[in-house]
UniProtKB/TrEMBL annotation:
Organism of derivation: Peronospora belbahrii
Protein name, per record: Uncharacterized protein
Superkingdom assignment: Eukaryota
GO molecular function annotations of the record: ATP binding; ATP hydrolysis activity
Gene3D superfamilies hit by this protein: 1.10.8.60, P-loop containing nucleotide triphosphate hydrolases (3.40.50.300)
GO biological process: microtubule severing
């Protein structure tokens, strides 16, 4: 972003925050909630206006399991898939990282079943008006191997150095 434009946007945001908390709005029930992945980028003026600062760490074991369950919903999982193993393997992953693992794993059986050759065959049959029935018996099942490949392809989005930086920022600027 253009530094001048950034300065203008930031100034306007600070003015609006001041306006909400002015005497004119005394008694109003307004809560400003902000989130960032880079809290150290906030300047002092912004930190002063955001009086409560809370660091939310990555999901713990129970939360990671719930994220997997939410993302997998009604998906058919092979008997070899163990959610407890996946939960352990994703320690240090963000909720979004876990969602990406699930999306990647769910896509793999689709790619196995719907090969380019099969899609071409379906297209040809539909063009001549035939009903395509070959897939009616095929189930899309996500396997342990799908998750292993997904975990190989989706890495943690935040490294140890950045986690350390979050904790340092929390120690210096976080609310007690």
């Amino acid at each position: 972003m253009d530094p001048w434009l950034y300065g203008q946007v930031k100034t306007e945001l600070l003015v609006q925050i001041n306006g909400v908390s002015s005497r004119e709005h005394t008694g109003s029930q307004v809560i400003l909630l902000a989130a960032t992945n880079l809290p150290w980028e906030f300047d002092e003026a912004m930190r002063r206006r955001l009086t409560k600062r809370v660091y939310i760490p990555f999901p713990e074991t129970k939360a990671r399991r719930e994220i997997f369950e939410l993302n997998l919903g009604q998906i058919d999982l092979d008997l070899d898939v163990d959610l407890d193993d996946l939960v352990q393997e994703t320690e240090g992953y963000s909720g979004d990282d876990i969602t990406n693992v699930c999306v990647t794993a769910k896509r793999m059986p689709v790619e196995r079943v719907y090969t380019p050759e099969l899609l071409l065959k379906m297209r040809r049959e539909m063009e001549v008006g035939e009903k395509f029935r070959e897939l009616e018996t095929q189930r899309l099942v996500v396997t342990k191997a799908d998750f292993a490949e997904a975990l190989d392809n989706v890495s943690k989005s935040v490294g140890h150095d950045q986690l350390r930086r979050f904790k340092e920022w929390e120690t210096e600027f976080g609310s007690k």
